[in-house]
């Protein structure tokens, strides 16, 4: 797999992993402020995933989820994705809307338009805080799009990532973190997916290109 | 009877009474080709419309290479080209609800168009299709009868 990512080596992965750590830390703080709860974050990882494994990155590909995506443009291009299980999505929408479970029940049909919109806003805030940390650290200009959300099978949602990476190769490089509250009633997987040109830029900026 | 799963950018060929399935087609397109006389069915999970330059490491990834490759593999299993018929599903725009304009979000439609073109240039008749929309699909081709079952979340189930 490493060969197909143009020889990216473990030292470089460590370096860009640190970048993911700082971005994710910032996003976790923002999420905590938004939800008014303590948020725990997994150790951010950099993963190189073969195309074929992308649909099952967040569980069985037919699992119903809410997915959010923000497109990045500017010096850094690619996508940011957030994946939440339906139950967690409903819980999160409920907290953001301040009405307990009123924004949705526990199935794909019962998350209301308001609930979806609230999750789009969560996505917006997470992506914005993550990217602003990376931007100030590297001096790269990153322009996030508005957030897009949908509720469907996780395989279908993640296929947008597979398509994006499939243009350039047979694998994808992800920064991956999970966020959850203490009760674990709100949890999401969060992915930063810089495209091929962008991770080279990131390594240059970090002085990791020659490692 | 066994069920063979086709991954993303993958293709498989089965004989009756087996079933070939692919889970969670979003903007990707599932092209199902069936030969009713030999009762051989094939399914390819297409990711992108066309291959631009360089060596194709995986023909199943692109519509313009995946469709001919599927036909070739079916012929190798004993199917006959002139009795083959095709059905396609997928090509959704998963994130359209908020009016996304980015090129990547429009890929579903381009995938569908290229699959239709590829089938046409191979001379395979496209009999049924369920494409577009804003939702994902799981498809199952039954090599017993050539039926293509389509399952969705919140948009029902149907047979092509």
Work out the largest interface and the residue count of each chain.
A-B, 37 and 32 residues
What can be said about the biggest beta sheet of chain B? 5 strands, mixed
Distance between the termini of chain A: 19 Å
SSE string of chain B: EEEEEHEHEEEE
> Kindly, what is the distance between the CA atoms of the first and last residues of chain B, rounded to a whole number of angstroms?
21 Å
- Choose one word for the global shape of chain A: globular
Low-confidence stretches of chain B: none
Main β-sheet of chain A, in a few words?
8 strands, antiparallel
Give the oligomeric state.
Answer: heterodimer
Fraction of residues in H or I helices of chain B = 10-25%
The portion of residues forming beta strands of chain B comes to 25-35%
Structural features:
heterodimer; A: 211 residues; 8 strands; B: 160 residues; alpha+beta; 5-stranded mixed β-sheet; 18% helix; 34% strand; globular
Q: Can you describe this structure?
A:
The complex is a heterodimer of chains A (211) and B (160). Chain A is globular. Chain A is an alpha+beta fold and 211 residues long. In chain A, 53% of the residues are buried. In chain A, strands 1, 2, 3, 4, 5, 6, 7 and 8 form an eight-stranded antiparallel beta sheet that branches. Chain A has helices at 10-35, 86-97, 113-138, 154-166, 196-205, and strands at residues 39-41, 45-50, 64-74, 78-85, 142-144, 148-153, 171-181, 187-194. Helix content of chain A is 41%, strand content 27%. Chain A contains five helices and eight strands; from the N terminus they run αββββααββαββα. Chain B is α+β, with helices and mostly antiparallel strands and 160 residues long. Chain B has two helices and ten strands; from the N terminus they run βββββαβαββββ. Chain B has helices at 63-76, 107-121, and strands at 3-5, 11-15, 19-25, 29-35, 40-46, 85-90, 125-131, 137-142, 148-151, 157-159. In chain B, strands 1-3-8-9-10 form a five-stranded mixed beta sheet, with no helix packed on it. In chain B, helix 1 crosses helix 2 (107-121). Chain B is globular. Chain B starts with a strand and ends with a strand. The A-B interface holds A 51-52, 54-55, 61-62, 64, 67, 69, 71, 79, 108-109, 116, 120, 145-160, 162-164, 166-167, 170 and B 7-10, 23-28, 47-48, 57-58, 61, 92, 94-95, 97-98, 100, 102, 104-105, 107, 134-138, 153-154.
């Amino acid at each position: 797999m490493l060969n197909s990512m143009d020889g990216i080596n473990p030292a470089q992965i460590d370096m860009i992993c640190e970048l993911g750590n700082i971005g994710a830390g910032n996003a976790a703080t923002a999420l905590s402020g938004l939800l008014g709860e303590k948020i725990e974050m997994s150790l951010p990882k950099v993963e190189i995933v073969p195309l074929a494994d992308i649909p099952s990155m967040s569980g069985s590909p037919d699992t119903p989820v809410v997915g959010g995506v923000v497109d990045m443009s500017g010096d850094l291009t690619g996508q940011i994705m957030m994946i939440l299980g339906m139950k967690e999505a409903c819980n999160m929408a409920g907290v953001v809307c301040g009405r307990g479970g009123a924004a949705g029940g526990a199935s794909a049909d019962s998350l209301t338009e308001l609930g979806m919109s609230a999750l789009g806003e969560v996505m917006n805030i997470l992506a914005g805080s993550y990217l602003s940390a990376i931007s100030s650290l590297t001096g790269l200009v990153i322009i996030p799009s508005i957030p897009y959300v949908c509720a469907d099978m996780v395989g279908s949602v993640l296929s947008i990532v597979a398509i994006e990476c499939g243009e350039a190769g047979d694998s994808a490089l992800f920064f991956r973190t999970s966020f959850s509250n203490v009760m674990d009633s709100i949890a999401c997987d969060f992915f930063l997916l810089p495209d091929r040109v962008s991770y080279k830029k990131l390594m240059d900026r970090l002085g990791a290109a020659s490692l | 009877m066994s069920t063979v799963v086709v991954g993303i950018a993958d293709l498989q060929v089965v004989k009756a009474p087996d079933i070939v399935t692919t889970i969670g087609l979003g903007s990707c397109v599932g092209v199902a080709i069936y030969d009713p006389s030999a009762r051989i069915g094939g399914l390819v999970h297409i990711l992108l419309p066309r291959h631009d330059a360089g060596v194709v490491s995986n023909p199943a990834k692109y519509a313009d290479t995946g469709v001919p490759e599927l036909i070739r593999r079916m012929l190798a299993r004993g199917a006959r080209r002139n009795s083959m018929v095709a059905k396609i599903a997928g090509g959704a725009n998963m994130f359209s609800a908020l009016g996304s304009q980015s090129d990547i979000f429009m890929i579903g439609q381009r995938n569908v168009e290229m699959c239709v073109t590829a089938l046409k240039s191979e001379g395979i008749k496209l009999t049924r299709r369920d494409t577009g929309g804003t939702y994902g699909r799981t498809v199952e081709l039954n090599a017993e009868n050539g039926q293509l079952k389509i399952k969705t979340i919140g948009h029902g189930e149907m047979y092509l």
